[in-house]
Design goal:
Blueprint (H helix, E strand, L loop, with lengths): L4 E4 L6 E3 L2 H19 L6 H5 L3 H7 L6 H16 L7 H37 L12 H8 L16 H27 L4 H14 L19 H14 L5 H17 L3 H18 L10 H8 L1 H22 L4 H35 L9 E3 L1
């Protein structure tokens, strides 16, 4: 998702904001996820056994925290994007179409690449064609095309795709709830309409991390992880004086208390990321911190990198180990080469697939008159 937000309103001067700090966090999260997947299936066992335990824990095992960072960032950015929106059914439809136009071409491209790598792997290894370690069926492919593989409970073709299904649900549900709050305010003159809508939704979401509802691992719908997205929203609202910061910090403390009852790093990652966003925003540093060219580059290609790194890295590592002796040094070399190849492929994917999809999404006007909000 692009944190750059342009807005124009009738008689108002066009303003632009670019939150470099958000792009930097997105780049860190994407690279961290790559490192997390690098050690799966014991591919770096010899290398990691020679490294300090704390280093392996932070650099590789901790990479799973890239996902909560993405979820909180999404809440912050979508709240920013919809800050001036007047949401009705027409707006909701256009917003949904724009989100699909932005996300789907790179997603479909990554599906094709993943299937091609899986087919090539099956031919080389003399094994059955089974992307994601499961045979490919028409139902499975159809579910992926509409982000429904979680709902239909079919195995993912690529390990990372599950988060896209959840993220899309976040976007649509949040936009719908915000529209409901606006309707209650305008039709019923309900002063605290936003609280009436979002407090119950927040309470329901909180029942999962505190253990009232059982957490069965990776969810098939948004609600068990809804709190992470909401933390990003609440951080933004607190910054923009739409929510008193004390309520944000109370909710953050409540979630951290749940960690005592039901320990999970996911909750900790969400809370830390949200607090960091709020404090950096309140310090007026979102547009200046971590404005390093290499980190901004990673942030720019982070969506492509997230989507494509699993098959690209896996292929590079497989070929590299076949050509070299399997030892700690060769694993380190293949790790470095796999990261470089993943970043390079992602840069090309950004230029020729993702960038055009962004341009396509920006052609979809969110409103019919001259007022245009670029999400």
């Amino acid at each position: 998702m692009n944190p750059k937000v342009s807005s124009t309103t009738s008689g108002a001067k066009k303003t632009k904001e670019y939150f470099y700090f958000l792009d930097a966090l997105r780049g860190i999260a994407a690279l961290w996820v790559v490192l997390f997947h690098a050690i799966l299936d014991g591919r770096l066992a010899l290398l990691t056994s020679s490294l300090p335990h704390w280093f392996v824990t932070v650099v590789f095992d901790g990479g799973s925290l890239g996902v909560p960072i993405f979820f909180v960032l999404s809440g912050f950015v979508i709240a920013h994007s919809l800050r001036e929106a007047k949401i009705n059914l027409d707006y909701f439809g256009r917003f949904s179409l724009r989100r699909f136009a932005r996300l789907t071409p790179p997603y479909y491209f990554s599906i094709v690449i993943t299937l091609l790598f899986a087919l090539l792997s099956s031919q080389i290894k003399g094994e059955a064609f089974a992307p994601g370690k499961e045979p490919l069926s028409l139902q499975r492919l159809f579910a992926h095309l509409f982000y429904l593989q979680d709902i239909f409970r079919v195995p993912h073709i690529n390990e990372v795709f599950w988060t896209l299904c959840i993220e899309l649900q976040f976007y649509l549900v949040f936009c719908a709830l915000l529209g409901l709050a606006q309707w209650l305010n305008s039709s019923w003159n309900l002063r605290y309409a936003r609280a009436v809508v979002f407090v119950p939704a927040t309470v329901l979401a909180t029942l999962f991390p505190i253990g009232v509802f059982e957490d069965n691992g990776r969810p098939f719908f948004f609600l068990p992880l809804w709190y992470g997205f909401l933390l990003g929203v609440f951080a933004y609202w607190s910054w923009r004086d739409k929510l008193k910061p004390i309520f944000f910090y109370f909710y953050s403390a409540l979630l951290l208390t749940s960690v005592v009852l039901n320990y999970t790093l996911f909750v900790i990652g969400c809370v830390i990321t949200a607090i960091l966003l709020l404090e950096v925003a309140r310090a007026n540093r979102l547009q200046v911190w971590l404005k390093w060219r290499w980190l901004q580059f990673l942030g720019q290609i982070s969506y492509s990198l997230y989507l494509i790194h699993v098959p690209v890295y896996g292929a590079v590592f497989f070929v590299g180990i076949k050509l070299l002796n399997n030892n700690a040094f060769s694993q380190a070399f293949c790790l470095l080469l796999g990261i470089i190849a993943s970043v390079g492929f992602s840069a090309l994917m950004w230029q020729f697939v993702e960038k055009p999809s962004i341009q396509l999404s920006q052609k979809i006007k969110l409103v019919k008159n001259k007022e245009v909000l670029r999400v």
